[in-house]
Amino acid sequence: MSWGWARTGTALCLAVALLGAVDAAPRDPQAPVKKYSGAPMDLDLQGADLRMVLRTFAETNGLNIVIDPTVKGTVDIKLTAVPWDQALDIILRGSKLGYVVEGTVVRVAPLAVLADEEADRRKLTDAQALAGTLEVKTFALSYAQAAKLEPLIKYAALSTRGEIRVDERTNTLIVRDLPDRLAAAQLLITTLDRAEPQVEIEAQIVQTNHDAARELGVQWGVNGRVAPELGNTTSLAFPNNGAVNGRLGTQSPNDPRASALEALGTAIKLPVATPTSALGLTTGAINGALGLDLALSALQRSGKGRILSTPKVTTQNNHEAEMTQGIQIPIQTVANNTVTVQFKDAALKLKVTPQITAANTVIMQIELENATPDFTRSINNIPPIDTQRALTRVQVPDGATTVIGGIVVARDQSSQDKTPGLGNLPLLGWLFRHDATQSESRELLIFITPRILRSRP
Fold it and tell me: Which of 52-56, 162-166, 412-416 has the weakest average pLDDT?
């Protein structure tokens, strides 16, 4: 056996710090690499007695060391220019040894022996901590529910000897344990049993409608006759007389003095269905052989609408709240000669669960539905339900307003009915056409505003 290192005179406290923890568990590859600062040494050992090697380390580096009687074995190692504290660490780990510091003395023993001693020491400490007289204390809660607080107190504050019971009638916790554990339980209960702030959530549903329509229509009535009494016969035996008129119905003049012959047959019928303005023109020959009737009808419409719904609800932190306003529509169904009635909600509904954060913001799980019945399109007296719904989770600062949803629907429609050929005439084509244009737009916006309501002390 040969040794080649310089005596360092290292103090015991420094040597212990350099040795580091030694255990049987595998090292974490991501753990920081241990640094060694001992003097470099060359070490070449073959079959050396382990106890003698440890004693030599102690004598050379000024360590007070006690070697457990169970430490046995030999050392086979060859190192060059390795810090002495690293060399000692390698020897201890290779022999499954550990150490404990007791005052100024380092005690080296197998890891199993040290583990057993540590377990016995902990058992003794726990037994001493659990020694004492148990006391009983009651805690009347103001805000928290005793049944929900019971498992938390039992887990975080009570000892293995402790017990806890709940009196639901008075919302009281009855705790039996050691005095120091009762003090810990009281501190925890004081922290948890406090008033939670409330949150007022206001939603605004803004729906705007805009529609415009424009129509222009025309009707032509024609009646032409060739007859002997009019003096305009054809001078032929056949055809000697005849008539040309429209076949889309008749247009009777509004003048009560007009005769039946002045009722003209409609040849071009392209009117506006529900006009807001109309103009008529009737002309005829002196002998009644020819009559023309012209009716122009027009429509122009525009409209705007705005619907505002503002549901508002207040609830405690982390508690769901729901508000509903509307009607229920009965729906009858017949099966096996049995009539059953089911009710379908057509209502404004706001359901929200707020969560107040430490940054004074509110996280909200929101379900908002605005359902209105449309009785103008009823089928079997059952109206369809026009529904707008938003389901989302947002975070909003206290008192701020955010848009959680929006829908924009726009529709433009145009149509043209005309008489073939005549409807395409330049400048005059409108006299033989029915033009209609219609535009409609709908916009829906949903706003949400939370306000934290803190109780005054």
Answer: 52-56
